[in-house]
Amino acid sequence: MAHLVLITYAVIAMLPVLLIVANSFKTRAAIFSQPHLPPWPGTFSLIGYLTVFSRGNFERYFANSLVVTCVAMALILLLGAAAAFALSQYRFKGNTWVGLYLALGIMIPIRLGTVSILNLTSALGLVNTLWALILVYTAQGLPLAVFILQQFMRQVPRDLLDAARIDGMSEYRIFGLVLPLVRPAVASVAVFTMVPMWNDLWFPLILAPGEATKTVTLGAQQFVGQFISDWNALLASLTLAMLPVLALYVLLSRQLLRGLTAGAIK
Do 231 and 113 reside in the same domain of the chain? Predict the structure, then answer.
């Protein structure tokens, strides 16, 4: 019974994705007349992908999203792991309060500070630059990264770290020793932080709406008009935008499942 429920849920969750991919390979007429059927020889068409690559400037938007997401994710993992290591291994005055302060970032949506963020980025001259998005996404993902990694680093045997210190290893080398031991947590943080960054439309629309800094999600909006929409190109662009997220999940799926199950046990 449990497997039947899980399979049913998986089908329901995957159905919208499959419909988007299938309809991206159809003619415009088939999208509306046969939306639930796969593309047949009579309805198969690549017009959406041809439009995306010929008129949509998709390569630039994809590159912008890739740069923003990769740089922000690298900063989140590096800074989050360093902060989590310090909070989990060192005892200092205010340790608990610093952890609680960072945890507030999980509970308070960053979009509530959009006006202040826009004023700050404007004062720094970062509007319509990729750095505006990178810094905002780094601040958005750090609280969750610190919270997850801190819990896992606390499970690393202290005797192992003390033995490394006795052998003369520096704290930086000990930090490098701990990171491979918490790979499942790092994979979980990578997936949980990449998905909202890659799919975000709010901050690219406000902080970087220029043609040179548009991301994939913002670039796909050009195919949606007030009176008419190019559904072939829109579905094709959404299909291409899903590929990096799916690739990351496939690459880190084993570590992600280990991290989730370990977190459930803890």
Answer: yes
SS (H, E, C) 65-128: HHHHHHHHHHHHHHHHHHHHHHHHHCCCCCHHHHHHHHHHHHHCCHHHHHHHHHHHHHHCCCCC
Q: What residues make up the domain containing 185?
A: 57-265
In this structure, the answer to whether residues 9 and 78 fall within a common structural domain is no
Q: Is 76 found in the same domain as 32? A: no
pLDDT of 166 > 80? The answer is yes
Q: Does residue 51 form part of some domain?
A: no
Tens digit of each residue's pLDDT (9 = 90 or more) over 30-79: 888 888 888 888 889 888 888 888 876 888 998 999 999 999 999 999 99
pTM: 0.85
